[in-house]
Amino acid sequence: MLENFIFSVSSAVPIFMVMIVGYFLRKRKVVDEAFIKMANTLVFNVALPIKLFSDVFNTSLDQKLDLRFIIFILSGTVLSVVIVWILIRGFIKDKAKLGAFLHGSYRGNFLYIGLSLMENVTGSIGFKAPLAIAFIIPTYNILAVIILTLTCTHKDLSTNIWGVIKNIIKNPLIIAVLLGILASRMGLNLPLMVTRTMGYFEVLATPLALITIGASFSFEKLSENINISLLASLFKLVIIPASAVAAALLIGFPHEDILLIYIIFGVPTATVSYIMTVAMHGDRDLASNIIMTTTILSNITMTLFIFLFKTMGII
Fold it and tell me: Where is the secretion signal located (predicted)?
């Protein structure tokens, strides 16, 4: 039992510790807002796409596309939005807050925190995680546009949907996954010089992403909307992932899929939810608070879920 708990803590807590380093670097003025923006751009457009390409390229693609898994995570995401909307609509009257709440309660930081947790637990992200990204990110974006358009003012749904479609086509993460699949299928042999160069960026992706998340924290306004933020955290970190895992176990998904399903649904809210909420005139303070509360509390929930999975023999 103690060994399982130590394993769980060792898997989840280091992620949070790196973020804490980022926070103190910002407080000590070692990094600033300009660095955060440039680092996010570097991670999203260069380091993480290279990492995803490499992971897919170096994974055996002999297995067929698991449509059951893809349908499960996509339908689960949509259902989580619908159910949460029904449950809390009567409690949150302010439309701007409602949009921020819904967006923050379903959109997980799968790219940075999720992949980091997957590596810590299993040693690699495998093939299904990058593949899930190719499907889940477009779904996240489309749902965000619909939610924020219906709950915020001065927005045209058709214009935003077209913008989302263009962003999906140009998304470097999705392009990297597709190129990785294509290169693997073609049986390409990359030169050693190329693979070693890619390796430097692969190592860079995770720590730099976590540092920028921590450096973005601002605790000054954390007390504002704390009750709503905690409710969103309850949905995002406990109710939704627990429901998804229970459904996956009932359906009979294999253990490796159970872990990935938890990570997809159970990681804290993605920082991009704040950017989209602000752009579409939602409640920026609530969006920021949800990101911080879910990120802080996920240190506890991720540890407990991993401990539970380890005890049950799932990992």
Answer: none
